[in-house]
Structure to design on (375 residues):
């Protein structure tokens, strides 16, 4: 079975408004996902969390054990959704939106959120400022202009004054995070957005839960964040197909029934065991002003979308919980700095899809993950 890796990175709308009310049932499984079990394979799918489709497939002979493990996995998805959301608050949770609503207040937060925030802050310096969870005020400016255009309104760019005013509130050093007491406080006007880390972080926590439930073979697909463990029951490694961004973009722009050669749909076929695959790209969420496209991945050092490159896909075996952060950073960094970051961190393979001509650059050991498929 092939899994399509779709680049739905950094557009997470962490909200389900109908859930944040008096009937809020945070860890119910049956009403928040669909479950299926057939021939030793259990599957769960939900569209209610992290603004994307999340599918988990496990291979387990015991049907009851499979359902229990999938429900436990869904509970992990739910908890990190409630903690990381910057669009809704939830009863009983002090989450990102709670903090954003009153940034100057001292908030007591869950230790899980403290860990996530501490790592986010650390990676700001590691990536020379390209990864900044305090960028939300700037992202909101761009989002409002992009949304207006996408909904048929005026298509124009934010003014330099608007962006500069928003940028007054993105200094990550103004986040006072106490990791010992699990508290956070920020300056007025600041807001957080964990879109570049939370989904990948959640996937790895789901991975840990499935292993704790003694599931020995599974595949997680959270809107393009892929995580493998074990091998397929037929004895082979899991296979993931990474879609060709140019073809995908063309399909979205031409919604009629178009004929596309099946061999052109994917630009990489990946095979491996116990790996994570994450991509960042600029072609699924953008708008056009005066013939130029402006996508949703904003460079904190310029306050504008990066205008080179189309996508980058990352494969990791070690520290896969950081794959989201790394893919975003590699997309935004100039190529020499991106390659230097990989060398500094180690154990990362990546492939860049650079331009409309399909030019690609891959790290030296990326080849080991390219599937050797027989006709």
């Amino acid at each position: 079975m092939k899994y399509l890796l779709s680049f739905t990175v950094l557009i997470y709308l962490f909200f389900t408004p109908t859930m944040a009310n008096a009937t809020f049932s945070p860890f119910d499984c049956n009403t928040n996902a669909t479950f299926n079990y057939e021939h030793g394979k259990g599957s769960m799918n939900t569209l209610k969390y992290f603004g994307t489709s999340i599918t988990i497939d496990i291979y387990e002979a015991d049907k009851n054990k499979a359902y229990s493990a999938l429900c436990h996995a869904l509970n992990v998805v739910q908890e990190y959704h409630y903690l990381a959301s910057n669009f809704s608050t939830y009863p009983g949770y002090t989450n990102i939106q709670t903090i954003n609503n009153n940034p100057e207040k001292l908030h007591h937060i869950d230790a899980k959120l403290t860990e996530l925030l501490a790592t986010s802050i650390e990676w700001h310096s590691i990536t020379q400022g390209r990864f900044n969870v305090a960028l939300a005020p700037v992202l909101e400016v761009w989002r409002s202009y992009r949304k207006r255009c996408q909904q048929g309104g005026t298509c124009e760019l934010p003014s330099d004054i608007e962006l500069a005013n928003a940028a007054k509130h993105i200094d990550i050093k103004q986040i006072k995070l106490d990791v010992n007491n699990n508290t956070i406080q920020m300056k007025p006007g600041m807001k957080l957005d964990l879109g570049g880390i939370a989904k990948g972080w959640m996937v790895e926590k789901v991975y840990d839960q499935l292993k704790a439930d003694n599931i020995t073979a599974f595949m997680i697909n959270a809107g393009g964040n892929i995580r493998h463990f074990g091998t397929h029951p037929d004895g082979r490694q899991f296979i993931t197909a990474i879609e060709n961004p140019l073809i995908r973009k063309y399909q979205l722009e031409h919604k009629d029934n178009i004929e596309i050669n099946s061999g052109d749909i994917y630009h990489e076929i990946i095979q491996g065991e116990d790996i994570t695959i994450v991509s960042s790209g600029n072609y699924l969420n953008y708008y056009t002003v005066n013939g130029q496209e402006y996508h949703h991945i904003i460079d904190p050092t310029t306050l504008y979308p990066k205008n080179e490159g189309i996508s980058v896909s990352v494969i990791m075996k070690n520290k896969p919980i950081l794959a989201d952060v790394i893919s975003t950073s590699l997309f935004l960094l100039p190529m020499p700095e991106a390659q230097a970051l990989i060398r500094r961190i180690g154990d990362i393979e990546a492939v860049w899809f650079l331009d409309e001509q399909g030019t690609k650059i891959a790290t030296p050991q990326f080849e080991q993950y390219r599937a050797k498929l027989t006709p």
Summary: The first strand starts at residue 2 and ends at 5.
